[in-house]
Design goal:
By secondary structure, the protein is an all-alpha fold. It is built from 18 helices and no strands. Helix 4 packs antiparallel against helix 5 (about 90-110), helix 6 packs antiparallel against helix 7 (about 150-180) and helix 7 crosses helix 16 (about 375-400). It is globular.
Length: about 500
C-alpha cells in the first residue's frame, strides 16, 4: 500500500529535486576538498616568513633551520606517488581522511614543539599527511565532476588553490607571526583540519578502491619512494653541500639507480604500483613534462620576486604578501569561471601555451627590475601578466595531465602530476638559486657592491625561469594534440 501510494501520489516535479541536491552536494564536497588541499599548499610557504622567529626561540643554526622547510618537502615529495596509488587501491576518500588526520595531528605537534628535533620530526610527518591529501584531492575532484563544463570550472578553482595558495601563505604567515607568534601558523590548521574531516564524512563520496584482491607492489613502492626521497634530499641540500660534491652526486646517482630498478620491477610484476602503460597516454606524458618546466618558472616568480621585494626594495613580509594580491585576485577571477569558459571555447592546448608564454613574459619584465624599483612601474605590471598567465594555463595543465586516464588510475595520475610540479619546482629553484648566487659572488669578487651584485644574480635567475616557461610552451605546441577538448563522461575518460 505504501509502495503504491509512493508510486501514484508523488508530485510530477519530484525527480529533479534529488539532482539539484546532488549538484549542491558535489560543489560543497569540492569546497571540503579545497580546504584540505589549501592547508597543504599554504604550509609549504607559510613557514618561510616565520623562520627568523623559530630560529630565535628554538636556537636553530642557519644550516639546521633549513630543515624546518626541507623535512616537509622531503617526505611530501617522496610519498606523493605512493599515496596516489594507495587511493586507487583502497579508496580515495579513505586515503584523503587518513592524510588529513596525520596532517592535523602533526600540525598540532609543530605548534606545540619546544625543541628543534620535535619541530623537524613533526614537519616530516606533516609532509607524509600532506602527500596523502594532495595526491587524491585532484582525482576526487575529477570523479565528482564528469560533465565537461562543470569539470573545467571545478578544475579551474582547484588550480587557483594550487597556484595562488603559495603567495597567500606568505601573507598569512606575515599576519599570524606579527599579530600572534610563529606557533599559530601551525595551530590554525587544527580546527580547520577537524572541520574538514567532519564535513568530508557526509559530503565526499566514499567510493570503493580498485584493489580487487591485488597484492600491494611492495618492491615498487619501496624503490620509487626511496628514489624520490633521495632525489629531493639531493636537490634541497645541493646548494649547501655543493652541486659537484661527492655527497650530492652520490645521492643523485643512488636516486637514479633506484629509479631504474623501479622501472624494471614495474615491467615484471603482475600488479605494478605504477602501470607503465599510463605513460603511453600522450597527454599525460607531455603535460607532466610541461608541468616540470613550468613549475620551475613558477618558483622563479614566487620565490625570486619575494626576495627582490624584501632584500632589494626593503619590503616587510606583510608588504611582500600584499604585493602578490593583484595576481591572486586575477587568478581567482579566472578560477571562478573565466578559465572554464576559455578551455571550453578554445580547448586545452591553446590556452596552455598562451598562459605559459605570458608567464615567460612576466618573468622577463622582472629580469629588468631596477635597484630603485617603483611598485606601480616595475612590479605591478609583472604581477598582472603573471596572474593572467597562471590563471589561463593552470587549469589546462591539470586537465591534460588527467585526460584519458582510466578511473582506476586516477589517484596515480594525480600523484604523478603533483610529483612533477613538486620535483620541477624544487629542481628549478635549485638551478635558479645556484645560478643567481654564482653571478652575485662573481660580481662581488670583481669589486661590485653587494646590492647591485645581488640584483644582477636575480636578473639572471629570472631569465632562466622565463626560458623554462617558454620551453614548456614549445613542448605543448609541438607535442600536445591540437584541438584537444576537456575530457568528460563517467570517470576520468577512457
Amino acid at each position: 500500500m505504501n509502495a503504491l501510494a509512493s508510486a501514484t501520489d508523488a508530485p510530477a516535479l519530484a525527480p529533479p529535486a534529488p539532482k539539484a541536491a546532488r549538484i549542491d552536494r558535489r560543489w560543497l564536497a569540492l569546497i571540503v576538498l579545497l580546504l584540505g588541499d589549501v592547508m597543504i599548499v599554504l604550509d609549504s610557504t607559510v613557514v618561510n616568513v616565520a623562520l627568523p622567529s623559530m630560529r630565535q626561540d628554538l636556537g636553530f643554526s642557519e644550516a639546521s633551520l633549513a630543515w624546518v622547510v626541507n623535512a616537509y618537502l622531503l617526505t611530501f615529495g617522496g610519498f606523493l606517488l605512493l599515496a596516489g596509488r594507495f587511493g586507487d587501491l583502497f579508496g580515495h576518500r579513505r586515503v584523503f581522511m587518513i592524510g588529513l588526520v596525520a596532517f592535523t595531528i602533526a600540525s598540532a605537534a609543530c605548534g606545540l614543539a619546544a625543541s628543534q628535533g620535535m619541530l623537524i620530526l613533526a614537519r616530516a610527518l606533516q609532509g607524509i599527511g600532506g602527500a596523502a591529501v594532495s595526491a587524491v584531492a585532484l582525482s576526487l575532484t575529477m570523479v565528482l565532476f564528469s560533465e565537461p563544463g562543470e569539470r573545467a570550472k571545478a578544475m579551474g578553482i582547484f588550480g587557483f588553490v594550487a597556484s595562488g595558495g603559495g603567495s597567500i601563505g606568505v601573507l598569512l604567515g606575515g599576519v599570524l607571526t606579527d599579530a600572534l607568534d610563529w606557533h599559530w601558523i601551525f595551530l590554525i590548521n587544527v580546527p580547520v583540519g577537524i572541520a574538514v574531516f567532519v564535513a568530508a564524512f557526509s559530503l565526499v563520496p566514499a567510493g570503493k578502491g580498485q584493489a580487487d584482491g591485488q597484492k600491494l607492489d611492495l618492491a615498487g613502492a619501496a624503490t620509487i619512494t626511496l628514489s624520490l626521497l633521495l632525489a629531493v634530499y639531493a636537490i634541497v641540500n645541493g646548494n649547501g653541500a655543493g652541486w659537484l660534491s661527492a655527497e650530492t652526486l652520490g645521492t643523485l646517482a643512488a636516486a637514479a639507480a633506484l629509479f631504474i630498478l623501479f622501472l624494471i620491477v614495474e615491467a615484471r610484476v603482475p600488479s605494478p604500483l605504477v602501470p607503465l602503460g599510463l605513460f603511453k597516454i600522450r597527454t599525460v606524458t607531455v603535460s607532466n613534462i610541461a608541468g616540470v618546466l613550468w613549475s620551475a618558472g613558477m618558483f622563479a616568480w614566487f620565490f625570486l620576486s619575494a626576495l627582490y621585494l624584501q632584500l632589494v626594495l626593503g619590503y616587510s613580509p606583510l608588504e611582500v604578501g600584499l604585493s602578490f594580491l593583484p595576481a591572486n585576485l586575477i587568478m581567482g577571477a579566472f578560477s571562478i569561471g573565466l578559465s572554464a569558459r576559455i578551455v571550453m571555447r578554445f580547448g586545452i592546448s591553446g590556452p596552455l601555451v598562451a598562459g605559459m608564454v605570458l608567464v615567460g613574459v612576466g618573468l622577463l619584465l622582472f629580469a629588468r627590475a631596477p635597484l630603485e624599483g617603483d611598485f606601480l612601474i616595475d612590479v605591478l605590471p609583472s604581477m598582472i601578466i603573471l596572474g593572467i598567465g597562471v590563471g589561463i594555463a593552470f587549469n589546462p595543465v591539470l586537465l591534460a595531465a588527467m585526460s584519458g586516464v582510466p578511473e582506476r588510475d586516477a589517484g596515480l595520475a594525480s600523484g604523478v602530476v603533483n610529483t612533477s610540479f613538486m620535483m620541477g619546482g624544487a629542481l628549478g629553484l635549485a638551478i635558479l638559486a645556484s645560478a643567481g648566487a654564482a653571478r652575485t659572488s662573481g660580481l662581488v669578487a670583481e669589486g661590485v657592491e653587494q646590492l647591485p651584485a645581488l640584483l644582477s644574480g636575480y636578473h639572471l635567475a629570472f631569465l632562466i625561469g622565463a626560458a623554462f616557461a617558454f620551453v614548456a610552451a614549445a613542448a605543448a605546441v609541438l607535442l600536445l594534440p591540437r584541438g584537444m577538448k576537456v575530457p568528460g563522461g563517467e570517470g576520468m575518460g577512457h
